[in-house]
Amino acid sequence: MHVSVVGLGNMGHAIAANLLKARFALTVWNRTPQRADNLVAAGAARAATPADAGRADIVITMLADDGAVEHVVFEEGVLESLPRNAIHVSMGTISVRLSERLTAAHAQRGSTFVAAPVFGRPDAAAAGRLFVIAAGRGDALDQCEPVFGAIGQRTFRVGEHPPHANVIKLAGNFLIASMIESLSEAVALARKSGIDARAFIDLLTNTLFAAPAYKTYGGLIAEERYRPAGFRMPLGLKDVTLALDAARDRTVPLPIASLVRDRMLEALANGYDDADWSALGAVAAKAAGLRRSSR
Amino acid sequence: MHVSVVGLGNMGHAIAANLLKARFALTVWNRTPQRADNLVAAGAARAATPADAGRADIVITMLADDGAVEHVVFEEGVLESLPRNAIHVSMGTISVRLSERLTAAHAQRGSTFVAAPVFGRPDAAAAGRLFVIAAGRGDALDQCEPVFGAIGQRTFRVGEHPPHANVIKLAGNFLIASMIESLSEAVALARKSGIDARAFIDLLTNTLFAAPAYKTYGGLIAEERYRPAGFRMPLGLKDVTLALDAARDRTVPLPIASLVRDRMLEALANGYDDADWSALGAVAAKAAGLRRSSR
Amino acid sequence: MHVSVVGLGNMGHAIAANLLKARFALTVWNRTPQRADNLVAAGAARAATPADAGRADIVITMLADDGAVEHVVFEEGVLESLPRNAIHVSMGTISVRLSERLTAAHAQRGSTFVAAPVFGRPDAAAAGRLFVIAAGRGDALDQCEPVFGAIGQRTFRVGEHPPHANVIKLAGNFLIASMIESLSEAVALARKSGIDARAFIDLLTNTLFAAPAYKTYGGLIAEERYRPAGFRMPLGLKDVTLALDAARDRTVPLPIASLVRDRMLEALANGYDDADWSALGAVAAKAAGLRRSSR
Amino acid sequence: MHVSVVGLGNMGHAIAANLLKARFALTVWNRTPQRADNLVAAGAARAATPADAGRADIVITMLADDGAVEHVVFEEGVLESLPRNAIHVSMGTISVRLSERLTAAHAQRGSTFVAAPVFGRPDAAAAGRLFVIAAGRGDALDQCEPVFGAIGQRTFRVGEHPPHANVIKLAGNFLIASMIESLSEAVALARKSGIDARAFIDLLTNTLFAAPAYKTYGGLIAEERYRPAGFRMPLGLKDVTLALDAARDRTVPLPIASLVRDRMLEALANGYDDADWSALGAVAAKAAGLRRSSR
C-alpha cells in the first residue's frame, strides 16, 4: 500500500517517520523541502508537488490550517491526481465546514475522504502513541487501519460522516482550553490567598483531577512557565474559534468558549503570541493584580 | 481521646460510623435526634445539646452551611464548653470568612481551630476513603491525625492558617462546577451535530480526560440522568458563591465562576432545584434548542 | 449626476425613492425586478444587470450581506463597468474586511470606494432622516454630498479610510445589542420582583436614559412584543458577529459582544429566528423562569 | 413638620441644605459633626445622637451602605426613638434585603418605612434636581411629598412595597454600569482601528444615543479622564453586587452584571480603587493592549 504524507511539521514528520518504520511505501511532500531530507535518507520518496504526492492509495494531509489544506487539495492538485477509490485522510485540525466540503468534493470524484484528527502532542506522535479519531466510510476506515495502527495507540471510529471526527477534535480542544482557563482562575485565587500554587496543583491532581492534562497544564500555570510553547496561543485561539464556528452553524451557544476566546485575545494583545496557551494563567494573574513571581 | 461529631447528615453520619469502628470514644449530636439512633446502638454517647458535645478533646462539625455552624458554635455553646487546648475541627464546606472568625474566636479562648474540609461523595465517606484538606497549628494537626486516618485515605496538610484549607476546598468545587459546565456545552455541540453523547464521553474519558470526575459527570450529562441528585444544585450554587465571595474579598475576578453561577441560577429558576448540579447539562441543552431525549 | 441604486430592500427602496424625489437621474436594479416597478413608474431607469447599473457616476449598493455585495461587484460586473473616477458607495452593513477589499479593488482600477453605512430604521429611510456615516477620499465625499443630503438628516465624515465607517457602524449596532441585553436582564429582575415592567421602563426613560433607543427597545421588551420584527434576530447576530470579527482582526476582546452573541444563538435555537432582536428579552425572561405574561 | 437628616455626605448635605431653604424645621446628624456646622449656622438644629435625630416626623437616612444604616437605626436608636406614625425615609442605595427588614421592623413598632432612593449626582442634589423613586404606604408618601418636592425635580411613586424602589434604583445603576462597560469595549475597538475616540463618542451621542449618560461616560472614557472620581469604582462594585444579590434572592441570572462585576474587580486589583467607575474603560483598553494615550 502506497501512502503519502503532505505536511511535515512536528506532527506530520513524526507520523511519516513511524510509517517508514512500519515499512509502508512512503512519499512525502513539504513546502519547505529540507524538512523531508532525513525521511528521504531513510527511504521515503520525495514528491515534487502536492499533485505528485496525490498519486497514492492513501494521502494524509497534516497541515497548519484550513487555508493550507485548501491550497494543496484544490489548487495544487491533490484532489485531481488522487486515483478513484483512493483515500484522502485529513489528520490536522480543520474546520467542520472544510471537512464537509472535502467530503462532498471527493464523493463527486469517486475518491473517499476520511477525517482522522488526533489527540496528542508531538512527543506522543514521535512515540506512535497518538489517539486517532476517525470518521468515514467503513471500508475506507478498514483500509486505513494499518496506517492508524502504525502512528497511534488507539483508533476510535466515530461513524461514517467525516465531519463528526472534526467536531469531536474541536470539542476536545475546547475542553482543554476551558480547563486551562479554570485552572488559571483557581490558581490566581490560591496565590492571592497566600497559598503556594505548586502545592495547590499537586493536591488537586492527586485528588479530584488525577488526569495528565491537569498535571501538565496545572504545572505550567503554577510555575508560570509559558515559554517555550508546547501549543502556541494563536493555535489555541484558532481551535476555539473553529469550535465556536461549528457551534454557530448548528445554533449552539458555547458561553465558556466565548469567554476563553476573549481571554486568548487579551493574551495575544499583551505579548503572549509566542507563548503556550497555558499563558491564560498570566492573563488571570494580571486581572487579579498579581505580579509575576520572582523566579 | 474523646471525639464528638456534631451534624449527622450523610457525610457526618458516615464519619461518625468510621470513628466508632476505629474505637474512638465518641459522642454525637444532631438536631433531629433519630439520625443518631443506630450510632448510639453501636456504642456512641448521645449529647443532649451541642454544648454537651463540646466537652471533648476534638469536636468535629459537619453541618450544611455557615448559619448552622454559627448557631451551634456561638449560640448553642460549642465554643464555650470546649475545654482549653481542645480542638474544633470544621469539616463542612464553610465560607472563608467564617473560618477566619472561628480561628480568631478559638484563639481568644485558648482552644484551637482546625479547618479540615474533605473531597469525596457520601460513598467515599462511608468507605473511609475521603481526602482530608487540613490546615491549623501543627500540634493540633498532629493530634487530629488518628481521626483523619480513620475517615480518609489521605490527609493533605496545607499550612498553619485554617482558612487556606477552605479556599482550597472552594477552589476545588469551583473547578468541578466549571468542568460540568464545559462538558455540558461540549455535549450539546456533539448532540446537535448528530454525535452520540455517550460515545463522545467514552472517547474523551479514554483519551484526554481519564479522570474519575469526567467519567462521573460526563456520564450523567450524556445520559441526562440528573435525578436522584448526588450533590444538589442549590449546594453547588452555594459553593460557587462562596468561592466568588472569597475571591471578591481578595479582589480576584473569576469569570468562569460567574458564568457558572448564572447558569446555576437559570437551572434553579427552571425546575432543577432538586436535581444534581450536573443538570447544568439540561440548561446547555435547552439553550441549544435540544429537546430532552426520549429515554 | 447619474446615480444607480443596487438593492431595493426596505432601505434601498426608500433611498431610491428619495433620490428620485430630489430629481437625480436614477437607475435601479434588484434581483427580484418587481421591487423596482413603482420606482420605474415614477421615472427611474431599470438596469438589466448589475453591470448596467454600474455605468453611472455614483453606484450605491444597499444589500443584505457580504455575499450579495461580493456577487454583484466582483462577479456580476459592477466593478468592471464602473467608469474611471466614478464612485461606489456601499451603504449596507458589510464586514470591515470586505470594505478593505473594496477599497483596494477600486483603487487598483482607478475608481473610488466610499463606505457610507447609515443609522436609522426603514421609517427613517422613508422620511429621508437617516444618519450617514461616510468615509473615503475627500473629493469623493464632496461629490456624494448631494446624494447624502437627499437621503439623510446629517452626514458624519469620519476620515479618508472607508473601513473606519464600517467599524463605527458595527460598533453602533453592538452598542444597541448590548443595550437590549442589559434591558432584558433588568426587566427580568423587575418583573420577578413584582414590579410592572412598563412602569419600570417609563421611569428609566424619563430619568437616566431619555434616549429614543431605550424607549423603543425598552417598550418592546416590557410588552414582550417581539413580532413583527423591526430588525430580525439573524441580522442582529450577523452584525454582532461582524463586530467580533473586526475586533479579532485587531486583537480586541469584546466580552459583552460575545455574551450577546451567545444569547442571540439561544434565541435562534428556541424559535425566535423570525422575531425582532429585542427578543433577547424572551431569553432573559426564560432564564429567570418567567412565563410569558398573558397579554 | 419636623424633618431630620442623618448622614451628611455630599448627597445628604445637599438635601439638607435644600430642606432648610424650603423652610422645614430641620435637625441634622453626622458622625463627623463638623460636616453639620454650616447647616447649623444656617438654622438647622444639631442632634447629639442618631436617637435624638429620630425624634421627628420624618427621618431621612442618607448613608454610605447597609452597615451604616443598620448601625444608626438598630443600634444607635433611630428606630426606638422614632414616634409612632412617624416616617423613616431611606434615600441611600441600600440592599433589597435591608429594605425588607426595615419595612418589617417599622411596621412592628407602628412607625412607617419609605424607600426613596434617588437618581442624580451631587450637582443634581445641590440644584434640587434629583429624581426620587419612592415606595411605601400611600398616606406616608403623601406626607413626604413636600420633602421630595424640595429636593427633586420629580417623584416617581412605584407602589406600596418599599423594596420595589430599591430594586429599581439598583437596576438603574446596573444599567449605567453595563453602558459604561459596553462603551469601554466599543471605544477600545475604535481606538485600535485608528479612529479618534472623541469623534466616535460625539457621533454616537448625536445619533443613536442622545442621552446625557452616554455623553458623560462616553466622554470620560474617550478622554481617559478617570480621576477625580464622580462615583468611585468601589461604590459601583457595591451597587452591582447589590443588584446581583437581589437577583439571586429572586433566582434571576444577570450575566451582564456578572461580567461587569468581574471587570470592576479587575479594575480594583490594578490600581483603580480611587478612580471613577468609568475606569472600566482602562480595563478594556488594557485588555486590547492599548497604551494609555499620552495626554
Helix content of chain A: 40-55%
First-last Cα distance of chain A: 53 Å
Radius of gyration of chain A: 20 Å
Count, helices of chain A: 14
Give the tally of β-strands of chain A.
9
Q: Please name the two chains that share the biggest interface, counting residues whose Cβ lies under 8 Å from a Cβ on the partner chain.
A: A-B, 61 and 61 residues
Largest sheet of chain A: 6 strands, parallel
Q: Sum up the overall morphology of chain A in one term.
A: elongated
Oligomer: homotetramer
Low-confidence stretches of chain A: none
Give the strand content of chain A.
5-15%
Mean pLDDT rating of chain A: 97
Strand order of the largest sheet of chain A: 3-2-1-4-5-6
Descriptive overview:
Four copies of one chain form a homotetramer. With 295 residues, the first copy, chain A, is an alpha/beta fold. Chain A has 14 helices and nine strands. In chain A, the strands form two sheets. Chain A has a six-stranded parallel beta sheet with strand order 3-2-1-4-5-6. A three-stranded mixed beta sheet of chain A has the order 7-8-9. In chain A, strand 8, helix 8 and strand 9 form a beta-alpha-beta unit. In chain A, helix 10 packs antiparallel against helix 11. The radius of gyration of chain A is 20 Å and the shape is elongated. The interface between A and B is large, with 61 and 61 residues.
